[in-house]
Amino acid sequence: MRVQYLVAGLVLSAWSAAAPAAWQKASSPHFIIYADDKPERLRAYAEKLEKFDQAVRYARKMPDYPVGDGNRVTIYVTRTVSAVQRLANDQSRMVAGFYIPRAEGPLAFVPKTTGFADMDADVVFFHEYAHHLMLQELDRPVPEWLVEGFAEFMSTATFEKDGRVALGRAANHRAVGLFYTEGLPLETLLAGNYDRLTDIQRESIYGKGWLLTHYLAFSDTRKGQLDTYINAIGKGTPALDAARTAFGDLKQLDRDLDKYLKQRTILTLFIGADIFKPVAIDVQALSAGAAEVIPLRMESKRGVNGKTAEPLAVKVRKIEAAYPNDLLVEVTLAEAEIDSGHPQASEAAADRALAIDPRNIEAMIFKGRAIIAGALESKTEDRKRFDEARTWFLRANKLDTEDPEPLMEFYKSFVMEGLAPTKNAVEALHYASNLVPQDAGLRLNSAVRYLQDKDAKKARETLAPIAYDPHGRGMASMARNMITKIDAGDAAGAKKLAEQGETDEGDATGSQAH
Question: Does position 254 have pLDDT exceeding 70, yes or no?
């Protein structure tokens, strides 16, 4: 895949330092995990992640709609932190792992052990997955302090011996910022203007954001105020004005927060053991070829560019020569070949994968993409080739109607052919965006499509979740500016902003370490 949207700061819980037996793959309802570790350890970790998912959904009253195989979070576990840092191209060596939300399937790259003493590994993983879940149900703008505060609230989850899960424990990893530094003033935090912050002030978005979120969640005297605040922002009220309307005297709120911080104990939400349902988890050892190609598959999925695509493809070809007709090897090669500009070779690899497993959706998608890339390369503009490619996307969709990638590719095929997308293609785009609201680029395309179809209201609703995405940066800023234009009755101006952004920035990306 080509590089897209990156969020840094994700690590797994402690893995065994002992030498593992072989690469394993664990599959559960919401996760796919690849790890070079013992099967029983991998199973236990998958169970823990699924339990956390259930706990957050229960606390938030979130539905748990079926997740397509292509839309589960795939976690690649590396042997070392330095391997993660190489994948992230992290020169600072501060990244312990990272998460990429995308229509092709959300990804996480994590090490077995971290070596970081200041923040527990589970804390960071749960923080990022809380973002994933929060973005899944957002239908209105939410300020950055609350997005991070919610993630921090969930990040300290603990698993009790009696089967309960505790949410909202103290964020001790934020203690230095809360107690010993002069952080962000409350009014600045609530105003949401974070363009020129020091590192210490930015820490307050996390620390004070957690404190305010925790206080408003448990305070008897301020029940309903948070909803009032968010609803006002959703209607276009400036954030600071919405805060004054919802919370009243902000100086008093600041004093209340200070008192709340200094109390000896804080409330914790316990989710009873009886609410958790057992989940099916399948753990399988990878074949020798698959185990060999996994490190290269990580690089491919992380994203390549003009300099790295061909060298990676060369390496995958060598593995395919040694292990022909291995399913994971062939689909990895199909991706490497199309990324390096060899559509015919990509299609051939996809065909070999489909000969092994005719129902493999990943192979179907690469075959369709390769057909289109080949047609564009030859400049034949052969409509039959585009129609053929679309049949593969439709086959993939029939096998998994909740996988957003075939839907997205079906829509893109019309754009790449230079045709106006059909009604079905437009519906596929919007449904794909709804299935993976975490993919800001796809969601922006959906919003622009609504603007093209003169539906400014739906465009605004679609933009809202990414407008205050704390990791969105350029994309989030664009979404906020587009919403401002829409609210002013200038839908054409909003559409123009998006078109200029595509020209000036390409794929708007954002990154933020935790």
Answer: yes
